[in-house]
Each structure stands twice: as C-alpha cells, then as structure tokens.
Amino acid sequence: MIPKHEMSADFEKLIYDAPMLRDVWQKTQSAAKELVDAGWTSHHIFNFVAWINRNAYSSVLFPGFSLGKLLISKPTNGKLNYQQTLAVWYDKRTDLFTLQYSAWDQIDSQEESERAI
C-alpha cells in the first residue's frame, strides 16, 4: 500500500465520534460559503454540503476542501482515512457534478500511484 498523505496535523490524530463529525460538517458548511464568495467553488457544492449537514451522513463521513473540491472520506475506527476519498466538484460549463473516487489503499507500487493521479 502506498500512503497518500502523512497524518501529521493535530486534527488528523484525533479519534472522531458522530458528534465530532457533525461539528466538522457545520464548520465545513461555513468554509464552503467563504469558498463560494471567493469564487473557488460553486453554490451547488455549498448546497450539497448543507444537505449532508442535515442528514445522517454528517455523523459518519469526514469533509474537507482542496482547491474548491469537496473531499469526503470515511473514518476507519474513528481515525481519518484519506486512503479512500471521494472528490466532488461542480463543472459550470457542463452544469454537472463530477465525482472522483480514489482508493489509495488498493495501490501497491509507486508506478501505480503515478498513473492514478
């Protein structure tokens, strides 16, 4: 397995339970609003984050943003797991959401890692 991301930030070392995940989604909704206002992402992504925030998904999934893309991962035993991540973004040209799933724990070599990017 090729590690995609070193877990070095304080928040990455925590063990998350449902209330902690819901809190992160609430903060992510605020961050999404700021990203929309700054032109980094679409209001469609904000609405999607708000929808997740209102549903049970917010208690089992961990959100983040990178370059305006919403990144969603499912913690394993309460710990963050970036090895399996769903990236979600909205393409204004096509008026469609795009989803890209990465399963880095399925990649065994550096060569496979470079092809998967």
What would a concise description of this structure say?
With about 120 residues, the protein is an alpha+beta fold. The protein has one domain (about 10-115). The chain has helices at about 20-35, 45-55, 110-115, and strands spanning about 60-65, 70-75, 85-90, 95-105.
Task: Describe the fold and architecture.
With 117 residues, the protein is of the alpha+beta class. The protein has one domain (10-116). Helices cover 32% and strands 22% of the residues. It has a four-stranded antiparallel beta sheet. Helix 1 packs antiparallel against helix 2. The protein is globular and about 40 Å long. The mean pLDDT is 86.
Average pLDDT rating: 86
- What percent of the residues sit in helical stretches (DSSP H or I)? 25-40%
Distance between the termini: 15 Å
Whole-angstrom Rg: 15 Å
Largest sheet: 4 strands, antiparallel
Low-confidence stretches: none
Q: What share of residues are in beta strands?
A: 15-25%
Number of domain modules: 1
Q: Name the strands of the widest sheet in spatial order.
A: 1-2-3-4
- Characterize the overall form: globular
SSE pattern, N- to C-terminal: HHEEEEH
